[in-house]
Design a protein that fits this description.
Chain A has 29 helices and 43 strands. With about 1000 residues, chain A is of the alpha/beta class. Classes of the chains: A alpha/beta (about 1000), B mainly alpha (about 220).
Chain lengths: ~1000, ~220
Amino acid sequence: MGESSSKTYWKSLPQRSDGVIPLPIAGDEFPEVPASRGMEFRRRDFLAAAGFALGGMAFTGCSRAPIQKAIPYLVAPEAIVPGHAVHYASTCRACPAGCGLLVKNRDGRAIKLEGNAEHPVSRGGLCAVGQASILGLYDSKRLQHPMQQGKRATWDVVDGEIMRQLDALRASGATVRVLTRPTSSPTMRRVIERFVGSFTDAKHVTYETLSSSAIHQAHERTHGQSVLPRYLFDKAEVIVGFDADFLGTWLSPVTFTAGWASGRRADATNGTFSYHAQFESRLSVTGGKADCRVPVAPSQLGAVLTQVASAVAKKSGVAFLAGDVGTNGIDASLVEDLAARLWHARGKSLVVCGSQDVNTQVVCNFINHTLGNYGATLDIAHPASQGDAGDDAIQTLLNELEAGTVDALIMDGVNPVYDLPNGAAFATAIGKVGLVVSLADRISETSSHATFICPDHHYLETWGDVSFGDGLIGFQQPVMRPLFDTRSALESLSQWTGVPKSDRALVQETWGERVSWNKAIHDGFAKVSQQAVPVGAFQVGVVTPVPVAEKVRDGQLALVLYPKVAMLDGRGAANPWLLEMPDPITKVVWDNYASLSEKTAASLGVETGDVVRVTRSEPDSKATTIELPALVQPGQHDRVVAIALGYGYGESARFADVGPEWLEKKPTLGDNGLVGTNASPLLTYRAGQLRLSGAHVSVTRTGRKHTLATTQDYHNIEIPEALALPGMIRRRPMVRETTIAAYQRDGKLPERGHAVHHEDLGDLWPDDHKYEGHHWGMAIDLTSCTGCSACVVSCQIENNVPVVGRDEVRRKRIMHWLRIDRYYSDNHGETDVLHQPVMCQHCDSAPCETVCPVLATVHGEEGLNQQAYNRCVGTRYCANNCPYKVRRFNWFEYAHDDKLANMSLNPDITVRGRGVMEKCSLCVQRIEEARIEAKKQGRAIADGDIKPACQQSCPAGAIVFGDMNDPESAVSKLIASGRHYRMLEETNVKPSVGYLGLVRNRDEIEDDTHHG
Amino acid sequence: MLTRESKTQGVTIILLIGAVFSLATLVVRLGAFHLPGNHQGYAPEQPIAFSHRLHAGELMIDCKYCHHGAEISRHAGIPASSVCMNCHAVVTDTLGSLRAEDDLAKEEDRKPRRMVSSELQKLYDALALDEEMKPKAGETPEPIEWIKVHNLPDFVYFNHSAHVNAHVDCDRCHGAIETMERVRQVESLSMGWCVNCHRTVNSIGVAGITVDASLDCAACHY
């Protein structure tokens, strides 16, 4: 292979060293079932089976078509026309961010959540967690009625008993505690305050594992106000992140992604292209997108921040005693360069820090203050409305509980037994409380200890609100009738305060005349006047240099616990869609794991899949140990072991039956009977703050193995060894990238060194494919795509894509129509990441169409590659002939009998049966719907009328669909861009889906010698 | 005694007669032969003997009065019982029997008795209404379970509104409903039948208006 100017991309470590993936790992696209004993098919078995089949055919052939009934309403509701979808605006409550929603409601049930494009904060995007939260509504494990002492009860009985006890406690001046997550709902806060106010000794305690308490406290010190700023990424030209995964999981990723992406439009004529540096210990989604990414150990984070602060201070002339913080192995010129960039972009830069150490956050505030970013890219006069979780409050509560001084405990939306490091102690301590009421909607580790469980509605069944801090209020409205005998937490608390009111009345009461109610509910949000928080002058005196924290002893590693995209702190743990969503970076499904760097894994003698024992031994307490499989992760700091939170959730035991039933089935659950391992016991408290990272642990091999299910080596597009001629390039480049400097100079992507040029032999069907009307196409911007996988889940929900379970994923039978390929490449010893969403490319000369013997996959008049399920006989020729490996085969009957869960199925899409091929249709149901609507209105389909599910959900706006025949359409303009390329265009299959090459903000194009 | 020849002859004759009979039956059967899934001629008995001949034919009520989804939705919809009650709160029996009772009452010099047709009584029972059209205490209304006549397979996505708004008349697919006492599936509703119409209207238009009826698989299958 000759000299080349392009980088070499690899999906997994074996691929990097060998250039191609050795077959035992990558395997065939459709691995056959290995022949095992007792599985040979003998002649007699064949005859028996044939006899059964014939008999069966004879029987079924005689049966009549089943009688179908049409049962109309008794009294037709005004808003519901059967078969006609309506959308209601609401607010997502799957995480505290509160993104705007449009809930698609068909025949009286919610079937799809879409981002509300008019919402000022989320701007149309909706993350995977939000998308998937609709399944919670149709969860058969939800509590369907109140419970008393573990037995079914009625609301009257439960209310009567609770209120009798509470009244007695009120009279005796007893101690009452309300435990919730920090809430950004003004109405909820008001209702809790009123409840708490009705006792003489009552308190509202909040806690959150993913706590931002340190940021609050740092602002308390520097600005005299305990606030969480609103971060305005769209106004920042230089962004520096310190262990803050703001594109993946930190605070409000959808909003931040939209803002971040808007500053990185490489084709905008006068737009700037922001610079993004990231210092982090593990490889996060955010780090993967950074122009400059530096792995740092948790112990160094504060010191590096101090170095940057010192350099920035020097430029501004502000005195800053950096002291001797050392260089920590971080290149001083890098810090200098960063400080220069920040200083140059002062007032238009943003430094964010995810540390839970207050001193570190104070230094971060100092940098932002020195750069004049407060009021520009950070708003603390109108801060985010999330209150301070106050990490020590929960420990105080635990002490109180253990002392037996609490008489009643009301819990809402929390599961401390699961997610506190000392959860077991909490479980024991609850036993000492006379009255324990849980508002949980399910039986969890914590709610099972409650005297009464008064299940809350799902958030799509109730009224509510969320404040964004700047006067913007998001409203939540019920989009369907409650399915079960549940009750809004607002109503329950109000009832027990002695002022029974409906949730709607309570929300309305909060806002009264300040909003135009009907408009606010229609829009899903409203703006009210918001008084600015009086912020004090910056207190330079409180800023102290943060030294390198205690060095990790030899043989130990620094532990980093992190919320994983989709799983967060365990909120998604009961959701099969989220569990089967490949992690954006590791591409692992259904498990958490201990990530180790290559070097560390080698020194420990550990490979991916080896079960390791992670032990934290504190001098004053006994050792805490968890066991989980290891994963070798490029780009991670060598002295770090990273483990995702949110796994090993008690409720995940329900997934024992997930996936098809067959002889060779292997369980989806681990040895512990759960999905993954709970890492919360390893959380630490230090200086009153809950710490996700920094604890010192030892990692040892157990000798056991656990095969992780990963999709990273799936669907490799390379020439098999047997077919490759000597010197042939076996792996073709699928992704292309450039730097902003090179792109602005050349206006195009660099030539591909690997490109194989094929002669254009013309079209196979020059007369057939005229595309006289529309010609649908799609362009995906790899610069904006963060790999967050909102599109993957959105596509899954829209198109009734089944969940197959861990074992089937290992067998390469994941059904996702849209996959995100993650490529690594080497950049001067660091690891670059590139994400590429791949769905059916809808080729104009599609190789799949020519090989189908039954014309099940044929070309449409508008360029769509159509798949008619009812014609498909399952030869799989099409999948074998597809160069992009986007076709999925139904190896089993994946449809299941969970009637409730099936209510979330899209009625506009066929539920495919066994033996049928399927793939992305570019959401043809949405195209047809838009076409019919346009025809009804007597107009042409306008650009933007059709948004496939992937485009609709994308927080970064990376996916654009439209008519390529219309030169004014958004997609046509993107195709005209110099960055536009099509995958494998040299093969002349003429895909309708194209990509815009990745642009990194680096000075020159990388000239990296490749490994092949 | 029968000879060998006459025996053979006899067998042949019997076989021939048998062959003729089986052929005749086969011809009859062939006439009614349908491909699996084709339910042309299907006319199931309904829980209430609702007459389209009376409502759509004689009384000339617009189809979309009851099937109002046809214009806006994928489904035309079976009317809610409340739609029936728009008229049948007052009209409780046929005009003939109401008049006859009126005449009889006049003759016998008494107030006319309340006349309720046996079929409409089923509607009132479903709605749990008493003689004064008031809800009966202690009874819950149960919707009427109509038998669906025109069924398409699950993998076909037909949209009524697309066709109705393109001025395709209801009878084009449903036949002369206004003449049917009990609704019968007139057309085969097979894919060939759909596609043929799509081809035809693309060349001659619908009601003089040019249309663009798609022939793509994905127009209906997704």
